[in-house]
Design a protein that fits this description.
Number of helices of chain A: 0
Number of helices of chain B: 0
Helix content of chain B: under 10%
Oligomer: heterodimer
Structural class of chain B: mainly beta
Largest interface: A-B, 27 and 26 residues
Order of helices and strands of chain B: EEEEEEEEEEE
Largest sheet of chain A: 6 strands, mixed
Strand content of chain A: over 45%
Shape of chain A: globular
Largest sheet of chain B: 7 strands, mixed
Helix content of chain A: under 10%
Radius of gyration of chain B: 13 Å
Distance between the termini of chain A: 40 Å
Shape of chain B: globular
Radius of gyration of chain A: 14 Å
Number of strands of chain B: 11
Order of helices and strands of chain A: EEEEEEEEEEEE
């Protein structure tokens, strides 16, 4: 099974500043998808951004962007102009494109604190 | 906006008792997932359904856990008997169709189980 590693259990950022959350993964596949999900306290998990492995261009969604390094198997999330509402658990997830299940395989998460 | 519905939100039970969780996915979503999220960890897949069929239940502890999706719509996850180690958040997610390139999973708010 593919392993997803988030080495930062907790990160802190000041409002309006930029923060980068790290994620590495282990796979022997060439086609796959990577995701960042946000889980606010006591609320459901929502998709932040996704990246198809066959695309070289890094995905961006407003203040959220990724740095996808396929050879290094690295997939970091950059949050620009951080807002108080960005405080949450962030999970990196991997999805195979070659098996019948297509379920997401999650990392252990990074807790992001945003200070005023 | 359509959401994945789960109930109950919170359940406290004594060990050896039976518990059940219910999930109603977004209308039209063929794929349904049950994940278990232990505090401080990322979600781990328990079972995946495609319509009414089980696609993957390799991580489901079948001696005590069971899951069904009889009509291919809503689903029930049961634990009997509950053990202390089952205390966790049980997340339900759905997607339009497994393997679709977008691959986005939509999550419910979860059912938090405490076993005493």
């Amino acid at each position: 099974a593919q392993t997803v590693t988030q080495s930062q259990p907790e990160m802190s950022v000041q409002e309006a500043e930029t923060v980068t959350l790290s994620c590495t993964y282990d796979t022997s596949e060439s086609d796959y998808y990577l995701f960042w999900y946000k889980q606010p306290p006591s609320r459901q998990m929502i998709l932040v951004i996704r990246q198809e492995a066959y695309k070289q261009q890094n995905a961006t969604e407003n203040r959220f962007s990724v740095n996808f390094q396929k050879a290094a198997k690295s997939f970091s999330l950059k949050i620009s102009d951080s807002q108080l509402g960005d405080a949450a658990m962030y999970f990196c997830a991997y999805r195979s494109d070659s098996n019948s299940g297509y379920a997401l395989n999650f990392g252990k998460g990074t807790s992001l604190l945003v200070t005023p | 906006e359509a959401e994945v519905a789960q109930s109950p939100r919170y359940k406290i039970t004594e060990k050896s008792q039976a518990v059940a969780f219910w999930c109603d996915p977004i209308s039209g979503h063929a794929t349904l997932y049950w994940y278990r999220q232990i505090l401080g960890q990322g979600p781990e897949l328990l079972v995946q359904f495609q319509d009414e069929s089980v696609v993957d239940d390799s991580q489901l502890p079948k001696d005590r856990f069971s899951a069904e999706r009889l009509k291919g719509v809503d689903s029930t996850l049961k634990i009997q008997p509950a053990e202390l180690g089952d205390s966790a958040m049980y997340l339900c997610a759905s997607s339009l169709l497994a393997g679709v390139r977008t691959g986005e999973l939509f999550f419910g708010e979860g059912s938090r189980l405490t076993v005493l």
